[in-house]
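TODO from last week: model Carbon-nitrogen hydrolase.
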Amino acid sequence: MASKLTKFKVAAAHAAPVFMDKMATIKKTVRLIEQAGADDIKLLVFPEAFIPGYPYFIECYPPLAQVAALALYAEESVVVDPGGDDMAAIQDACRRTGVAISLGVSERMGGGGHTLFNSQVTVDSDGTILGVHRKLQPTYVERMVRAQGDGSTLCNFPLASLGWNLGGLARVAGAVAMAGFEAVADAKIEALMKAHAPTAQVFVVTASNYVDETCLAWMREHLGEQDFVKEGGGWSAVLHPFCAFLGGPHTGAEEKLVQGEVDFAQLGAVKVWIDAAGHYQRPEVLQFRFDKRPMWADEKTKRFGRGVREKVEEGVVEERDEKAL
């Protein structure tokens, strides 16, 4: 582990994917990483399911009308195989630019299966895939598309270039472009992120994609007209642990890297108020435990060359206390 870099630039990629086109979106991902490198950004965070896009059609059409679309969505999803066809160009971009990333993907289990996960892939600045976090609980009709993650991927990953750990979670907020959420979605995202920052004592980078015409046109062509998802939405920002905006907030169709500078020298003052590893832990009252055993076949093998995943013993074990970015 390298010495800790106290102050550096991070960014949220406020951008839309090339909907349902894995290879085109991978190329766009590489361009955004290269842009971040040119701006001396050390960590770039992408939206949920950026490759190949969030499957908004599951909110809009009857299940039996979606079978072909769901099969195609699996084909366009990402197999996270280090050096494999889907990740090689992205790993190379991180290596060339010195940018670490947290990349949201629809992850397809290897081996040609059709089981999918809502995943975040952490790639370090040397191109190493440190690991994958699979969303524990798919939300609402997302359960029709995604399998459940397990406790083995609920962990943080050490970024060697920065000396800090990176963790990620998908939080339920709703898209502003989706029927029923138009008036509240941005406010919900902001509230959830501002709650997470002080309670976890972390800097938060929030990346939310907007719905563009590419997405809507694909749904019209393949599934017909619908009136549930509109063009627009998205809310991205960089937050201090005490909820101050370090970058953004930014919303709407203008694509940009929402940048902010984090300064870990400020964490001492934060921990004076709240220290989850110390005076806020209250181990005599609460014990945080979960099952870290891998449940899915591909998680039972060592898929990644470096990371925090040690050999998992049988049984329920306590989670280690780790700082997160």
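Done. Residues 7-318 form a domain with the Nitrilase/N-carbamoyl-D-aminoacid amidohydrolase fold (CATH 3.60.110.10).
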